[in-house]
Request: fold
Amino acid sequence: MVRKYARYFKGRPRSAPSEREEDEPRLCVEGLAVLLNEPIGTKTGEILVFEEGAFAAHFASNSRTEMWLSHDSTKVICSTNSGLEFANTESGLAFRFPLDNKRYADTIKQMVASGKQAAVSVGITRTKERTEMVGRHKVILIESAELREASLVAAGACTQAFARLIDANQSPSLRDSVKSVPFKIDSGMHNAKTQRETNATRIESLMQRLDRLERRQRKRDTLDQANRMQTIKVEKLQEQARAKLA
Reply:
Protein backbone atom coordinates (compact mmCIF):
# COMPACT_ATOMS: atom_id res chain seq x y z
CA MET A 1 0.00 0.00 0.00
CA VAL A 2 2.83 2.38 0.88
CA ARG A 3 4.60 1.68 -2.40
CA LYS A 4 1.35 2.15 -4.32
CA TYR A 5 0.90 5.72 -3.12
CA ALA A 6 4.57 6.63 -2.68
CA ARG A 7 4.68 8.45 -6.03
CA TYR A 8 2.06 10.92 -4.84
CA PHE A 9 4.32 12.09 -2.01
CA LYS A 10 7.60 12.07 -3.89
CA GLY A 11 8.98 15.56 -4.24
CA ARG A 12 6.20 17.15 -2.21
CA PRO A 13 7.34 19.43 0.62
CA ARG A 14 6.76 18.19 4.14
CA SER A 15 4.16 20.00 6.16
CA ALA A 16 5.61 22.81 8.26
CA PRO A 17 5.50 22.37 12.03
CA SER A 18 2.44 23.84 13.65
CA GLU A 19 2.64 27.04 15.70
CA ARG A 20 1.99 24.93 18.76
CA GLU A 21 5.07 22.78 18.03
CA GLU A 22 7.22 25.85 17.42
CA ASP A 23 6.03 27.46 20.66
CA GLU A 24 6.64 24.28 22.68
CA PRO A 25 9.61 24.97 24.99
CA ARG A 26 12.64 22.71 24.65
CA LEU A 27 13.94 22.55 28.20
CA CYS A 28 17.66 22.13 28.70
CA VAL A 29 20.03 22.37 31.63
CA GLU A 30 23.20 24.38 31.16
CA GLY A 31 25.85 25.93 33.35
CA LEU A 32 29.48 25.70 34.39
CA ALA A 33 31.03 22.34 35.22
CA VAL A 34 34.34 23.67 36.51
CA LEU A 35 36.27 26.94 36.53
CA LEU A 36 39.65 27.24 34.83
CA ASN A 37 42.68 29.03 36.29
CA GLU A 38 40.95 29.34 39.67
CA PRO A 39 41.90 27.55 42.92
CA ILE A 40 39.52 24.80 44.00
CA GLY A 41 39.72 23.25 47.46
CA THR A 42 38.88 19.55 47.65
CA LYS A 43 37.50 17.50 50.54
CA THR A 44 40.91 15.84 50.90
CA GLY A 45 42.55 19.21 51.52
CA GLU A 46 44.20 19.57 48.11
CA ILE A 47 44.17 22.84 46.18
CA LEU A 48 43.66 22.25 42.46
CA VAL A 49 43.88 24.62 39.52
CA PHE A 50 42.68 23.46 36.10
CA GLU A 51 44.80 25.19 33.49
CA GLU A 52 43.48 26.45 30.17
CA GLY A 53 43.14 23.47 27.82
CA ALA A 54 43.20 20.89 30.61
CA PHE A 55 40.41 18.93 28.89
CA ALA A 56 41.46 19.62 25.28
CA ALA A 57 43.02 16.18 24.71
CA HIS A 58 40.02 14.48 26.30
CA PHE A 59 37.51 16.13 23.98
CA ALA A 60 39.81 15.77 20.96
CA SER A 61 39.77 11.99 21.49
CA ASN A 62 35.94 11.98 21.37
CA SER A 63 35.90 10.13 24.68
CA ARG A 64 32.45 9.56 26.15
CA THR A 65 31.52 11.75 29.12
CA GLU A 66 28.34 11.23 31.12
CA MET A 67 26.12 13.44 33.27
CA TRP A 68 25.07 11.77 36.53
CA LEU A 69 23.02 12.53 39.59
CA SER A 70 25.13 12.88 42.74
CA HIS A 71 28.13 10.95 41.35
CA ASP A 72 25.94 7.83 41.20
CA SER A 73 26.94 5.71 38.19
CA THR A 74 23.53 4.01 38.25
CA LYS A 75 21.80 7.36 37.65
CA VAL A 76 23.01 8.40 34.21
CA ILE A 77 21.08 11.36 32.81
CA CYS A 78 22.77 11.53 29.42
CA SER A 79 26.17 11.49 27.72
CA THR A 80 28.10 13.18 24.95
CA ASN A 81 26.58 10.51 22.72
CA SER A 82 23.04 11.63 23.56
CA GLY A 83 22.94 15.42 23.61
CA LEU A 84 25.42 16.43 26.33
CA GLU A 85 27.77 19.11 25.04
CA PHE A 86 30.70 21.02 26.51
CA ALA A 87 32.46 24.24 25.56
CA ASN A 88 35.67 25.84 26.79
CA THR A 89 34.87 29.46 27.60
CA GLU A 90 36.51 32.36 29.42
CA SER A 91 34.28 31.61 32.41
CA GLY A 92 35.24 27.94 32.50
CA LEU A 93 34.08 24.61 31.11
CA ALA A 94 30.41 25.09 30.20
CA PHE A 95 27.88 22.34 29.55
CA ARG A 96 24.36 21.85 28.22
CA PHE A 97 22.04 18.87 27.89
CA PRO A 98 18.38 18.45 26.90
CA LEU A 99 15.82 17.38 29.49
CA ASP A 100 14.53 14.48 27.44
CA ASN A 101 15.36 11.63 29.83
CA LYS A 102 11.83 10.78 30.97
CA ARG A 103 13.10 8.88 33.99
CA TYR A 104 14.81 11.93 35.51
CA ALA A 105 13.36 14.96 33.68
CA ASP A 106 10.81 15.98 36.34
CA THR A 107 13.24 15.33 39.19
CA ILE A 108 16.02 17.37 37.59
CA LYS A 109 13.66 20.20 36.70
CA GLN A 110 12.53 20.45 40.32
CA MET A 111 16.08 20.15 41.70
CA VAL A 112 17.51 22.87 39.49
CA ALA A 113 14.52 25.22 39.64
CA SER A 114 14.41 25.07 43.45
CA GLY A 115 18.18 25.35 43.79
CA LYS A 116 18.28 22.29 46.07
CA GLN A 117 20.59 20.42 43.72
CA ALA A 118 21.78 23.03 41.25
CA ALA A 119 25.51 22.74 41.87
CA VAL A 120 27.89 20.77 39.66
CA SER A 121 30.80 18.50 40.51
CA VAL A 122 33.11 16.59 38.17
CA GLY A 123 34.78 13.20 38.26
CA ILE A 124 38.20 13.33 36.61
CA THR A 125 41.37 11.36 36.04
CA ARG A 126 44.45 13.56 36.23
CA THR A 127 46.90 12.64 33.46
CA LYS A 128 49.44 15.46 33.70
CA GLU A 129 50.09 17.82 36.57
CA ARG A 130 52.75 19.72 38.45
CA THR A 131 52.98 21.10 41.96
CA GLU A 132 53.97 24.63 42.91
CA MET A 133 54.20 26.41 46.24
CA VAL A 134 52.09 29.57 46.41
CA GLY A 135 53.01 31.23 49.66
CA ARG A 136 52.62 28.49 52.26
CA HIS A 137 50.18 26.49 50.16
CA LYS A 138 50.94 23.57 47.86
CA VAL A 139 48.94 24.00 44.66
CA ILE A 140 48.43 21.23 42.10
CA LEU A 141 48.24 22.65 38.58
CA ILE A 142 46.39 20.24 36.30
CA GLU A 143 47.68 20.47 32.75
CA SER A 144 45.66 17.56 31.35
CA ALA A 145 42.77 15.45 32.65
CA GLU A 146 40.06 13.07 31.51
CA LEU A 147 36.52 14.13 32.31
CA ARG A 148 34.77 10.89 33.24
CA GLU A 149 31.53 12.46 34.40
CA ALA A 150 29.86 15.61 35.65
CA SER A 151 27.14 15.44 38.30
CA LEU A 152 24.30 17.56 39.56
CA VAL A 153 24.88 17.83 43.30
CA ALA A 154 23.71 19.85 46.29
CA ALA A 155 27.19 21.34 46.77
CA GLY A 156 30.46 20.85 44.92
CA ALA A 157 34.13 21.58 45.50
CA CYS A 158 34.04 24.29 42.84
CA THR A 159 31.47 26.56 44.46
CA GLN A 160 30.95 28.65 41.30
CA ALA A 161 29.94 25.60 39.23
CA PHE A 162 26.18 25.66 38.77
CA ALA A 163 23.23 24.59 36.64
CA ARG A 164 20.22 26.49 35.33
CA LEU A 165 17.13 25.77 33.25
CA ILE A 166 16.70 27.30 29.80
CA ASP A 167 14.43 27.05 26.78
CA ALA A 168 16.83 26.11 23.99
CA ASN A 169 14.37 27.46 21.41
CA GLN A 170 14.82 30.92 22.92
CA SER A 171 18.53 30.70 23.73
CA PRO A 172 21.71 31.14 21.69
CA SER A 173 24.43 28.52 21.36
CA LEU A 174 26.10 27.32 24.54
CA ARG A 175 29.24 29.38 23.95
CA ASP A 176 27.20 32.55 23.31
CA SER A 177 24.82 31.81 26.17
CA VAL A 178 27.69 31.87 28.67
CA LYS A 179 28.39 35.46 27.59
CA SER A 180 24.75 36.52 27.95
CA VAL A 181 23.33 38.70 30.72
CA PRO A 182 20.80 36.07 31.94
CA PHE A 183 23.60 33.52 32.35
CA LYS A 184 25.72 35.98 34.31
CA ILE A 185 22.76 36.93 36.51
CA ASP A 186 22.01 33.27 37.31
CA SER A 187 25.70 32.68 37.99
CA GLY A 188 25.81 35.65 40.35
CA MET A 189 22.68 34.51 42.18
CA HIS A 190 24.14 31.03 42.61
CA ASN A 191 27.40 32.46 43.96
CA ALA A 192 25.50 34.69 46.41
CA LYS A 193 23.43 31.72 47.61
CA THR A 194 26.55 29.59 48.01
CA GLN A 195 28.30 32.35 49.95
CA ARG A 196 25.31 32.73 52.28
CA GLU A 197 25.26 29.00 52.95
CA THR A 198 29.03 28.96 53.53
CA ASN A 199 28.77 31.87 55.97
CA ALA A 200 25.84 30.22 57.76
CA THR A 201 27.86 27.01 58.11
CA ARG A 202 30.84 28.92 59.50
CA ILE A 203 28.64 30.82 61.97
CA GLU A 204 27.02 27.57 63.11
CA SER A 205 30.46 26.02 63.57
CA LEU A 206 31.61 29.02 65.62
CA MET A 207 28.46 28.91 67.75
CA GLN A 208 29.02 25.23 68.47
CA ARG A 209 32.64 25.94 69.38
CA LEU A 210 31.61 28.75 71.72
CA ASP A 211 29.01 26.49 73.30
CA ARG A 212 31.67 23.83 73.96
CA LEU A 213 33.99 26.44 75.47
CA GLU A 214 31.20 27.75 77.71
CA ARG A 215 30.39 24.23 78.92
CA ARG A 216 34.06 23.63 79.71
CA GLN A 217 34.25 26.94 81.56
CA ARG A 218 31.12 26.14 83.57
CA LYS A 219 32.61 22.77 84.43
CA ARG A 220 35.83 24.46 85.57
CA ASP A 221 33.85 27.03 87.58
CA THR A 222 31.86 24.27 89.25
CA LEU A 223 35.04 22.39 90.08
CA ASP A 224 36.71 25.56 91.41
CA GLN A 225 33.66 26.31 93.53
CA ALA A 226 33.67 22.77 94.92
CA ASN A 227 37.37 23.10 95.74
CA ARG A 228 36.76 26.40 97.52
CA MET A 229 33.93 24.89 99.55
CA GLN A 230 36.15 21.97 100.47
CA THR A 231 38.91 24.37 101.51
CA ILE A 232 36.48 26.33 103.70
CA LYS A 233 35.32 23.13 105.40
CA VAL A 234 38.89 22.04 106.06
CA GLU A 235 39.77 25.45 107.48
CA LYS A 236 36.73 25.36 109.80
CA LEU A 237 37.68 21.89 111.02
CA GLN A 238 41.21 23.10 111.67
CA GLU A 239 39.91 26.09 113.63
CA GLN A 240 37.66 23.84 115.69
CA ALA A 241 40.56 21.50 116.40
CA ARG A 242 42.80 24.37 117.50
CA ALA A 243 40.02 25.74 119.74
CA LYS A 244 39.71 22.41 121.54
CA LEU A 245 43.43 22.23 122.10
CA ALA A 246 43.61 25.77 123.48
User: Anything to note?
Assistant: Confidence is low (pLDDT under 50) at residues 1-15. The radius of gyration is 31 Å. The chain is about 40% helix and 30% strand.
